[in-house]
Design brief:
Blueprint lengths: L1 E5 L3 H12 L3 E6 L2 H10 L3 E4 L5 H6 L7 E4 L4 H10 L7 E5 L3 H12 L10 E3 L1 H14 L6 E3 L5 E7 L22 E8 L2 E3 L12 E7 H10 L9 E5 L3 H10 L7 E4 L2 E4 L26 E6 L2 H10 L4 E4 L5 H6 L7 E4 L4 H13 L4 E6 L2 H9 L4 E4 H13 L4 E7 L4 E7 L21 E6 L19 E7 L3 H8 L4
Parallel strand pairs: 1-2, 1-4, 2-3, 4-5, 5-6, 12-15, 12-17, 15-16, 17-18, 18-19
Antiparallel strand pairs: 7-8, 8-11, 9-10, 9-11, 13-14, 20-21, 21-23, 22-23
Helix pairs in contact: 1-13, 6-8, 6-13
Length: 492
């Protein structure tokens, strides 16, 4: 595929690096001279130092033959304008990163009503929505570790740190089924910055980070066996009341207290109408996590005007106009008595420091929102339970839209060297009718789960026959994703 990326920030660069590894033809347009030179020296692709909304720059990048245009500049309007300029190329897939709630909401209403997307843009990617989804999934399991959910299946992938002296410490994986109830599978082991696709002879050790695939009720048992038992969460604190913090708060509060609205006959859960003047109808994009209830949600925000809006939006929450770095405030308000803290300010360093400090003061669990995987690794080493790297989440979302029609999701895990793919088996594909044991996938690829949609999901064995219409959840090393998509996708 020939793909044009406009914007060479962290998202654009990370996305380009992945696509280059997958042997795609990439062209990058970046207006900033220093940034363009930096990317040109590090990536093997065409880099143009020019404005993305320049017709001549798009033509020089090869838009006439391009398969996709991805706009990830710092400006929503520029991203949308560039896609609009490319609307003369109807077969071109157009993706825009957009942070403005109103733009995304209106596009969602168009989709629900069967209307054309704004400016011909195929997909709007909102970073805060994607990050909030990831945070809520983790909180749903007590914020013990990162949780990856898959659409249409009760199975989830949990990230678990093995504690010394736990049942998993020293366990040889061929004995795993003897202690773990239900259908489950350890899909990956991270050990001292090394990713291991395990075999039956792999022995777990304290300090290992494992990725456990299991049903929700069995996943909690896996956390317990690893020495990370779930603790009840009744009091949750959210540091930062901006868009991201507001979305997380809305996901935690009682769904019956949220206002509702109708869009062309479709009823959706929403945030209250006034949320910084722009979030009307915005919660429709988040998947509600209703099973857990929290006795108390506290939102801590430094901006007084924003606190007034938060109090009006969330009458069920306690909104505190305070500086989280003020130690006297922490003691006076019993913040150290919280069961969970979520740090969601716009400053990733503050999020990490606050999460670590409050854990040292007795807060049981901590979730920190950061920009990239580098800070995520640091935060995990410092003891933060769940770290959400926002830009990596955005990259994963874009990659899922880029891959073939059968690909429903792609998720980078670990240090980015391994990915999880959700992919449908297409009729006439290379693998259809072949057995799992007899049809060899690329080295480092493993089918973890089969979702039959109308029947129970299961972890497959060697005699499973690849069947059109089944959805597979696979783990694969970097550089094999596109080959896997070709194997299970429709014949060209």
């Amino acid at each position: 595929m020939h793909i044009i990326i406009v914007g060479a920030g962290l998202v654009g660069t990370q996305l380009a690096r992945f696509l280059i590894d997958e042997k795609h033809d990439i062209a990058i347009i970046e207006a900033n001279e220093e940034r363009a030179r930096h990317v040109s020296n590090r990536l093997d692709c065409m880099v143009l130092q020019d404005e993305g909304n320049s017709i001549s720059a798009l033509e020089e990048a090869g838009i006439a033959k391009a398969d996709a245009l991805i706009c990830v500049t710092d400006s929503d309007e520029v991203n949308m304008i560039i896609c609009g300029l490319a609307s003369r190329y109807p077969r071109l897939l157009k993706i825009a990163r957009v942070r403005n709630d109103e733009y995304v909401r209106r596009n969602f209403q168009n989709q629900v009503g069967g209307k054309a997307s704004a400016m011909g843009i195929d997909f709007f990617i909102h970073p805060d929505v994607e990050a909030a989804r990831s945070a809520l999934d983790a909180i749903e399991h007590g914020a013990i570790g990162n949780i990856l959910s898959f659409a249409g299946t009760p199975y989830e992938l949990g990230t678990i740190d093995v504690s010394a002296g736990s049942s998993f410490d020293g366990l040889v994986l061929k004995d795993f089924r003897g202690i773990m109830q239900g259908e489950s599978l350890i899909t990956l082991v991270e050990r001292r910055n090394r990713s291991i696709l395990p075999s039956g002879d792999t022995r777990l050790a304290a300090g290992d980070r494992i990725y456990l695939l299991a049903k929700e009720e069995d996943l909690d048992e896996g956390f317990r066996l690893a020495g990370r038992p779930e603790k009840p969460i009744h009091r949750v604190g959210i540091v930062g009341g901006g868009r991201l913090g507001s979305l997380i708060a809305a996901g935690l509060l009682d769904r019956e207290k949220r206002r509702r609205f109708k869009t062309d006959g479709a009823e959706d859960e929403v945030l209250p109408e006034k949320r910084q003047g722009r979030s009307r109808g915005f919660f429709a994009f988040l998947r509600t996590l209703a099973p857990r209830t929290f006795k108390k949600v506290i939102i801590i925000e430094q901006d007084y005007g924003l606190c007034k809006e938060l109090a009006a939006c969330f009458p069920g929450a306690l909104v505190l106009n305070e500086d989280i770095s003020d130690e006297s405030f922490i003691a006076e308000e019993s913040i150290d008595g919280l069961d969970l803290i979520v740090t969601a300010t716009e400053h990733q360093e503050l999020n990490i420091i606050t999460a670590v400090y409050l854990k040292s003061r007795g807060v049981a669990r901590a979730v920190a929102m950061v920009d990239n995987t580098g800070y995520a690794a640091i935060a995990r080493q410092l003891g933060v339970d769940v770290v959400i790297p926002i830009k990596s989440v955005v990259v994963d979302t874009i990659l899922a839209k880029l891959m073939g029609g059968g690909v429903r999701g792609i998720h980078r895990i670990g240090e980015g060297n391994v990915g999880i793919l959700e992919i449908d088996i297409s009729p006439g594909s290379q693998a259809e009718g072949q057995s799992l044991a007899g049809f060899h996938l690329p080295e480092g690829a493993l089918v973890m789960l089969v979702n039959r949609k109308t029947e129970d999901d299961f972890i497959p064995r060697g005699d499973y026959i690849y069947t059109a219409g089944h959805r597979l959840i696979l783990i694969a090393r970097k550089g094999t994703e596109m080959e896997i998509e070709t194997i299970f996708g429709a014949p060209k």
